[in-house]
Amino acid sequence: MSLREDAEESKLTSGQRTGAPVNRRAVCGGCNRLYRDPKILPCLHTFCSDCISRLEPFSVCARGGSGGSGGSGGSGDAVDGHRTGVTVLCPHCDSEVDIPPSGPAGLSTDHLALDQVFLEALRAGGPLGCDLCGEGGAESRCDVCCVHLCAFCCQAHRRQKRTACHSVQRLEELKSCGRLRRPILCSLHPGQELRLFCPPCDRPVCLECAATLHRDHGGRPARDAAERHGGRIRDVVAASLRPRMERLKDALLQVDVSQDALQARVDATANEVRAFSRAYASAVEAHCRSLLQRLEELRVQRRNQLHLQRAQLQQALLDVGGGVEFAERLLSCGSDAEILAAKGVTLRRLTGLLEAGYDPRPADDAGAGISFVADEPAGEVDGYPLVGVVNATTLDPSRCTIEGEGLRRCVQGQRGHFTLVCRDSAGERVERGGEPVLVSVVHKEAKNCAVEAAVLALSDGSYRVSYTPEELGAYSVCVCVGAQHVKGSPFLLHVTRSSRRHGGTFHCCSFCSSGGAKEARCGCTGTMPGGFKGCGHSHRGHPGKPHWSCCGSTTEQSECLPPSVLRAVSPRGHLRTVEL
């Protein structure tokens, strides 16, 4: 840590002892001290480099390749052509994050945190040295050059033509500000600020680096590059993550509402149970206790499900909220170089949040399906017949099943059918009916081609669906219960034509198969002289191989071709084959 950072930390510590409020953004969450070399983890949480290096590895893996580009963020040591990477758990969000092979030094520096550290040191009081002469005490600060100036250097700064127009403010006035920008200097050329951006190397560079190491890389001003990359970050936050964060908040609120409704429903059912059980003696009292135990088990079971959903939603909200907060703070408070320095890790984290599959869905009423049926037989206790059971059966469309081949294939013009079996959340069959079932059968290619489906409720709680397709091809079959698709819906239905059996003989020719009869005809195009109406060997139109007398097909294991195909194949297709 540099002498200036030591001085700044001592000021902050002094401010803490005197009870002065401290900006928590300047304090590391790992060591609870002023940030020292703050680094940004891939989850967008910042810790001191030393704090990150002290984290216990969650896993260690070897990564292929060796060597890398110079400068900050370069690759680490290579062993046998592989680099060793470490995965740790973030102390803030418990996310698994990868540490580069070069260690914490390979992570992006959080320049926003360094600015907060400097601002806290400024507010804590104490002398600051002049950045130009290094001798006098700093009294002012140039907003353009981002340097501290003593009184003499301030006057010289304003007299020079190149810096006369710069905005210079007194340090006393800056103590009330919420943000101070410190220039990001080049690690290879101390004193040179990173004012350019190298697109091929994807990193900010100074003027000397652009003129030497990155001469032919087509560097561009950092402000122009920051506008483009900052726009990408802004689009991800505004178009996707912020609306998702709002949906997560709404889902959390609905979980709380559902939990209250669950408790209210359980309490109401318990009151019904108690009112019914008071009419009985000790046997009925024992039955009451068993019913209450059943309710308690249901409450605990569904409460645990709600707790799990709440924890998942809270973690998702924490992750998305942290990413959004960091990105918005980077865009609103960061300089061009700061945005470019952190844009890589920021976009990777924001993109990862989008791809993480956080898709909040409003929680269903956990108390739905819990009811007390007073007139249902419940067996006997001590010889007393009892009635009254706690019903917790709830139909679950995702567990409903379809039975029958009519859902996958059907023959054109013939009636197809299948059976819908309704099941509850435990996979048990629901024996009662009355559920709203909707079935649609629509052709996938032909427009406005839909088949009317009839749904019949059976006595065992299942539903029989029947339909008659008139067109060939693929159909989409949607089966919904209570406006929700059952598992696997929509289904793919193939409608094929019915097979036509051959009505003739698979022969070499009509002359041979009929014993030389002149009236025998054949479905092929062969002709014979001498008044014969069929085909013979080596005569005109003979297929030259065995074929069916009814349609002329040369494939024995095939269906009989329809008349339309016969007319398209042969001019004599209108001739019908006589029985040989």
Q: What is the CATH topology assignment of the largest domain?
A: Herpes Virus-1
What characterizes the major β-sheet? 6 strands, mixed
* Rg result: 41 Å
SS summary, helix count: 11
Distance between the termini: 107 Å
CATH architectural label of the largest domain:
2-Layer Sandwich
Q: Would you count the extended β strands for me?
A: 27
Estimate the strand proportion: 15-25%
Helix vs. strand class:
alpha+beta
How would you characterize the overall build of this protein?
- There is one protein chain.
- With 580 residues, the chain is of the alpha+beta class.
- It folds into 4 domains: 152 residues, Zinc/RING finger domain, C3HC4 (zinc finger) (Herpes Virus-1); 133 residues, no CATH class; 100 residues, Sandwich (Immunoglobulin-like); 77 residues, no CATH class.
- Helix content is 33%, strand content 20%.
- The chain contains 11 helices and 27 strands.
- Strands 17, 19, 20, 23, 24 and 25 form a 6-stranded mixed β-sheet that branches. Strands 3, 4, 5 and 6 form a 4-stranded antiparallel β-sheet that branches.
- Strand 21 and strand 22 form a beta hairpin.
- The radius of gyration is 41 Å and the shape is flat.
- The N terminus and C terminus are likely disordered.
Topology, pairings included?
Layout: H1 3-17, E1 38-40, E2 46-48, H2 49-53, E3 59-64, E4 78-79, E5 82-89, E6 96-99, E7 108-109, H3 111-124, E8 140-142, E9 147-149, H4 151-159, E10 168-170, H5 171-174, E11 196-198, E12 203-205, H6 207-211, E13 220-221, H7 222-277, H8 282-333, H9 336-355, E14 371-381, E15 384-391, E16 401-403, E17 409-411, E18 416-421, E19 437-443, E20 450-451, E21 454-457, E22 463-467, E23 473-481, E24 484-485, E25 491-496, E26 506-507, H10 510-513, E27 547-548, H11 563-569
Parallel strand pairs: 17-25
Antiparallel strand pairs: 1-2, 1-7, 3-5, 4-5, 5-6, 8-9, 8-10, 11-12, 11-13, 14-15, 16-18, 18-22, 19-20, 19-23, 21-22, 23-24, 23-25, 26-27
